[in-house]
Specification:
The complex is a heterodimer of chains A (about 120) and B (about 110).
Chain A: E1 3-7, E2 10-12, E3 18-25, E4 34-39, E5 45-51, E6 58-60, E7 68-73, E8 78-83, E9 92-103, E10 109-115, E11 119-123
Parallel strand pairs in A: 2-11
Antiparallel strand pairs in A: 1-3, 3-8, 4-5, 4-9, 5-6, 7-8, 9-10, 9-11
Chain B: E1 4-7, E2 10-13, E3 19-25, E4 34-39, E5 46-50, E6 54-55, E7 63-68, E8 71-76, E9 86-91, E10 98-99, E11 103-107
Parallel strand pairs in B: 2-11
Antiparallel strand pairs in B: 1-3, 3-8, 4-5, 4-9, 5-6, 7-8, 9-10, 9-11
Classes of the chains: A mainly beta (about 120), B mainly beta (about 110).
């Protein structure tokens, strides 16, 4: 079964750091670019970041650029999101998602065909 | 950044009726690279349509997408009980990738 499982969410104080992980299974992980998308409960979706299959390129939303770092370990079928200098507005459910139907050869611009169930990040003092 | 405006915010319809959802882009979407997703409470989004009009794997043919300029439309020909949900559009023609604010299709 194709599956993505996020972990690492929790309650963190403003200014602190948190690292999210996404474990992939059921498909050849290193064939796909991967992304993070977040959603404030009851609100819409916001793309956060993406990484190419070989980690050669990354992209970030302006709202997280310079604070968040996306990475992957293809040997472990794992995607990560290092989140530093967290703010209250980063509070959300964070999904990892598989890139599909890409534009260009990096797949940093794509639709998302497989999503995890998400991990909740709450930034509050 | 391309802003996607979805309308209406809420659509109240009965099973068997036709649903027409709109997504208007603030500027041209490169190669009409626009996707539609369905999200039910407590679930992750599900990809329905990509490239404005191509159905994703396993999506019933009652779901269809179309485009005219910067106006994108998702049509559900006959609503089934499981179709009542929130629908989002997303453009992936340029960075940053952006989503619309969503349309809720609720049971009338």
């Amino acid at each position: 079964e194709v599956q993505l499982v996020e972990s690492g969410g929790g309650l963190v104080q403003p200014g602190r750091s948190l690292r999210l992980s996404c474990a992939a299974s059921g498909f050849t992980f290193n064939d796909y670019a991967m992304h993070w998308v977040r959603q404030v409960p009851g609100k819409g979706l916001e793309w956060v970041s993406g990484v190419t299959w070989n980690s050669g390129n990354t992209d970030y939303a302006d709202s997280v650029k310079g604070r968040f770092t996306v990475s992957r370990d293809n040997a472990k079928n794992s995607l990560s999101l290092q989140m530093n200098s967290l703010r209250a507005e980063d509070t959300a459910l964070y999904y990892c998602a598989r890139a599909k139907y890409c534009t260009g050869n990096t797949c940093l611009r794509s639709a998302f065909d497989i999503w995890g169930q998400g991990t909740v990040v709450t930034v509050s003092s | 950044e391309i802003v996607l405006t979805q309308s209406p915010g809420t659509l109240s319809l009965s099973p068997g009726e036709r649903a027409t959802l709109s997504c208007r882009a603030s500027q041209s979407v490169f190669n009409t690279y626009l996707a539609w997703y369905q999200q039910k409470p407590g679930q992750a989004p599900r990809l329905l349509i990509y490239g404005a009009s191509s159905r994703a794997i396993g999506i019933p043919d009652r779901f269809s997408g179309s485009v005219s300029g910067t106006d994108f439309t998702l049509t559900i020909s006959r609503l089934e009980p499981e179709d009542f949900a929130v629908y989002y559009c997303q453009q992936y023609g340029s960075s940053p990738l952006t989503f619309g604010g969503g349309t809720e299709v609720e049971i009338k």
